[in-house]
């Protein structure tokens, strides 16, 4: 048998040291991201379990603006006043969404826990075994009473499946996640920033209702909160959507 040259021995040993160092850095990054999410979770009274470390890391690494796919829509109208955008009227086509119903005591708890379940589905816990890719916005369906003065605890958190997966969505391992096909819809959308909770949502609903020329054309008890930044972000970019009656 030919003896291994000192040079090749060095390279094989060196590469294994590099792999070990890379694994160590990988583990450190996972721990750092997990502890950050856990501290944010505590602020929302949500426990972030250890098995979220890998999905959080995958999502963080792939969360470049270039990597994210925006949900396609057709702009129908932009309503402005003195140069400020008041709202947009948009048409969203028929599409498949991965949805999970949540009913925690607080809205923030529901969206955090729902988002974590969807993250696991996106990050390989699906029948394809693949990372599915992030689409924005992640949306939450909320319900109010007819008078639009109080919000129900039950919400639905939903993830739009990327274009390439629309025809054959991977099956979720989590039986709480349901793949639904939503019909084509016209929405009236208004942007707002910051945290989303019962108070801020009700304020945004009332604000858009006051601005719309014909609010009676929209559903009075069902609204969508569209989130463009993850629930861990402090100054989040959100939209409130009113849904035109079918």
From TrEMBL:
Signal peptide: none annotated. It comes from the Eukaryota. SUPFAM superfamilies: Probable bacterial effector-binding domain. InterPro entries: Reg_factor_effector_dom_sf, SOUL_heme-bd. Gene3D superfamilies: Regulatory factor, effector binding domain. Belongs to the HEBP family. This is HEBP2 protein. It comes from Loxia curvirostra (Red crossbill).
């Amino acid at each position: 048998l030919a003896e291994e040259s000192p040079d090749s021995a060095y390279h094989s040993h060196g590469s294994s040291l590099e792999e070990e160092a890379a694994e160590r850095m990988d583990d450190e990054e996972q721990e750092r991201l997990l502890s950050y999410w856990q501290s944010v979770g505590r602020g929302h009274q949500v426990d972030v379990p250890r098995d979220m470390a890998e999905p959080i890391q995958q999502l963080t690494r792939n969360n470049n603006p270039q990597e994210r796919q925006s949900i396609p829509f057709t702009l129908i109208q932009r309503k402005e006043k003195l140069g400020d955008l008041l709202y947009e009227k948009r048409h969203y086509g028929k599409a498949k969404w991965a949805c999970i119903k949540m009913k925690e005591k607080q809205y923030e708890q529901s969206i955090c826990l729902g988002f974590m379940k969807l993250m696991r589905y996106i990050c390989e816990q699906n029948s394809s075994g693949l990372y599915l890719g992030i689409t924005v916005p992640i949306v939450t369906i909320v319900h109010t009473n007819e008078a639009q003065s109080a919000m129900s605890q039950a919400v639905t958190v939903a993830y739009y499946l990327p274009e390439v997966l629309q025809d054959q969505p991977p099956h979720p391992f989590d039986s709480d996640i349901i793949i639904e096909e939503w019909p084509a819809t016209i929405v009236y959308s208004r942007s707002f920033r910051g945290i989303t909770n019962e108070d801020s949502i009700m304020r945004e609903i009332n604000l858009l209702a006051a601005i719309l020329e014909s609010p009676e054309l929209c559903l009075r008890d069902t609204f969508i909160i569209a989130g463009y930044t993850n629930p861990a972000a402090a100054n989040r970019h959100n939209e409130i959507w009113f849904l035109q009656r079918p």
